[in-house]
């Protein structure tokens, strides 16, 4: 993606893409270069402040509505400091914010839009390299997908987890305790006053969810890919170490440009295998499977759901962090952070790839060499794991020809082999309205089925996958049921929830054919999900099936519906994931 030429101090002559906009030297180039330089003067910069320096775009998803990124406006200042000190020129670009809490129907609908925005911003402006800020769930995958397709040297600045939650001397975890205390309230065990206290104590600082949700999982995945600095994903958002790390990211982005270290050099098959191993050792979010497959697609790397099952078989779960364990990300940081966990993984020489390139400029082994566990209750050793193998199982069977996933570590073990009659809901609205109705006759044997919640049906595959348990069962102490859907589930959720059933019901996947009363068998040890209905009967039902009306008639929603792929291939747009090169813009 290079055009112009300019020498930069430190690493010898470097071709700067941005020089195509500004011309060579202080007066070089044509009318356009003259025009671009005059506008830089209008912005208040001296020629010597930017000419010949790597231009670093700081992609910043800060917004008033995003508490997980609320510190990033200020943190961008530390990135700038690092860029200036390393001899670069920083330019901050506000990008679309994806707040997992506030954006509806779900930010997943917009992940590919942010990926497109990032790619096209980097492509269309005088930019040589990028710092990708953020964490709230889809943000890191979106920005990395865009930067990978743009092909410019880039580094992820993870926005960091928030501090632990607090309530009457107890520690609260985001998501996990939101659900748990809400169920306590529904069961009549806590009143309005207590609930108001929980509301104030659940999230009490800037930063992303501090459980092992999608944000903690995907920022760790970015580090394990070698796209973020060593240890950076574990630093709490409000810790001074986060400021220092931000400055280091800015400085390193400048060096990446000088070294020509593009995402393509880092994002190899080996990198994705290491990221998958890391996600599984963390007991991470099931969303990571969708995102890593989509990110690999952008890098031209083959990665399938089966790879996660294969890798999981040789990777123990080592992070004792909720919802799989007991602790929170703040504890994980004090325990040594991701480097300490990677060091444990690396003790089995077959698991990680120590020699591969990273944005740190050093081999991946340097991410964990000499790292030690400081709190062995939080980061476990290989000898004393949370679980002997990875926490996510990939299921197949006549109900999920394109596979489904279950985070069986966060499930009730006695439900992992279970046959029961289905109670089917066609939409989340119907489910919410009817779930507490005793007339449905839901018992602990029931298999709850939600459809119409996939990439197209949701739309955007919302995190409905932890279907609520009827209040009358909660009152009797029933805490888990087998639940099946084509939805996703928050990484902070738990229970025997079979997710990402593909193909989804909206496009006529077998989930569309299930009827209340049908028997369904979940067999996690054998990785099977079976609808116990004869093929002949299923053929009859299929012949009578009518596809639902599309959600969107125009706009982005219609574009999304036309191009989104199913969960097993990462829900990217077909036209974004296919190989091919776009021309560089000609700034002259
Ligand atoms: Fe932003 Fe959980 S809501 S990371
Ligand atoms: Mg989440």
TrEMBL record:
The keyword Iron applies. Keywords: 2Fe-2S, Amino-acid biosynthesis, Branched-chain amino acid biosynthesis, Iron, Iron-sulfur, Lyase, Metal-binding. Residues 377-571 form the Dihydroxy-acid/6-phosphogluconate dehydratase C-terminal domain. The keyword Signal does not apply. Residues 53-364 form the Dihydroxy-acid/6-phosphogluconate dehydratase N-terminal domain. InterPro entries: Dihydro-acid_dehy_C, DiOHA_6PGluconate_deHydtase_CS, ILV_EDD_C, ILV_EDD_N, IlvD/EDD_N, Sugar_Degrad_Dehydratases. Belongs to the IlvD/Edd family. This is Dihydroxy-acid dehydratase. It comes from Actinacidiphila epipremni. The lineage of its organism: Bacteria, Bacillati, Actinomycetota, Actinomycetes, Kitasatosporales.
């Amino acid at each position: 993606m290079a055009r112009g030429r300019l020498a930069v101090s430190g690493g010898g002559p470097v071709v700067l893409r941005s020089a195509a906009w500004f011309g060579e030297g202080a007066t070089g180039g044509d009318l356009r270069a003259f025009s671009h330089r005059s506008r830089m003067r209008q912005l208040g910069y001296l020629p010597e402040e930017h000419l010949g320096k790597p231009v670093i775009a700081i992609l910043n998803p800060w917004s008033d509505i995003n508490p997980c990124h609320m510190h990033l406006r200020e943190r961008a200042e530390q990135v700038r400091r690092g860029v200036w000190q390393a001899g670069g020129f920083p330019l901050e670009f506000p990008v679309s914010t994806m707040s997992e809490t506030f954006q509806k129907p779900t930010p997943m609908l917009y992940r590919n839009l942010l990926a497109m925005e990032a790619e096209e911003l980097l492509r269309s402006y005088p930019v040589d390299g990028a710092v990708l800020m953020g964490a709230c769930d889809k943000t890191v995958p979106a920005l990395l997908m865009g930067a990978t397709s743009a092909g410019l040297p880039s580094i992820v600045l993870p926005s960091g987890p928030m501090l632990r939650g607090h309530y009457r001397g107890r520690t609260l975890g985001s998501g996990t305790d939101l659900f748990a205390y809400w169920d306590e309230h529904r069961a009549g065990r806590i009143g309005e006053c207590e609930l108001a206290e929980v509301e104030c104590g659940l999230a009490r600082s800037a930063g992303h969810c501090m459980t092992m949700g999608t944000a903690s999982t995907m920022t760790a995945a970015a580090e394990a890919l070698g796209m973020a600095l060593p240890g950076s994903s574990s630093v709490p958002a409000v810790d001074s170490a986060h400021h220092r790390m931000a400055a280091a990211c800015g400085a390193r982005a400048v060096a990446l440009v000088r070294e020509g270290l593009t995402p393509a050099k880092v994002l190899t098959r080996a990198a994705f295998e290491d990221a998958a191993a890391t996600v599984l050792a963390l007991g991470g979010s099931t969303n990571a499977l969708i995102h890593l497959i989509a990110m690999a697609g952008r890098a031209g790397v083959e990665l399938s759901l089966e790879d996660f099952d294969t890798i999981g078989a040789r990777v123990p779960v080592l992070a004792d962090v909720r919802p799989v364990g007991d602790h929170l990300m703040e504890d994980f940081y004090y325990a040594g952070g991701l480097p300490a966990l990677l060091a444990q993984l690396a003790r089995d020489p077959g698991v990680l790839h120590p020699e591969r390139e990273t944005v740190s400029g050093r081999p991946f082994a340097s991410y964990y060499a000499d790292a030690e566990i400081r709190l062995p209750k939080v980061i476990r050793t290989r000898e004393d794991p949370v679980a002997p193998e990875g926490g996510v199982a990939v299921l197949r069977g006549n109900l999920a020809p394109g596979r489904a996933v279950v985070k069986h570590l966060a499930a009730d073990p006695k439900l992992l082999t279970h046959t029961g009659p289905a109670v089917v809901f066609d939409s989340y609205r119907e489910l919410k309205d009817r779930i507490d109705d005793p007339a449905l006759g839901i018992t602990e044997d029931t298999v709850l089925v939600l459809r119409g919640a996939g990439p197209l049906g949701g739309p955007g595959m919302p995190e409905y996958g932890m279907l609520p348990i009827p209040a009358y069962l909660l009152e009797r102490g029933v805490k888990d049921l087998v639940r099946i859907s084509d939805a996703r589930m928050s990484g902070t959720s738990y229970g025997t929830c079979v997710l990402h059933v593909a193909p989804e019901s909206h496009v006529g996947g077998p989930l569309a054919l299930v009827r209340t009363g049908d028997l369904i068998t979940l067999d996690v040890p054998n990785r099977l999900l079976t609808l116990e209905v004869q093929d002949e009967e299923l053929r009859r039902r299929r012949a009578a099936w009518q596809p639902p009306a599309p959600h969107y008639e125009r706009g982005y929603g219609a574009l999304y519906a036309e191009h989104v792929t199913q969960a097993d291939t990462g829900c990217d747009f077909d036209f974004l994931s296919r190989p091919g090169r776009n021309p560089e813009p000609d700034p002259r």
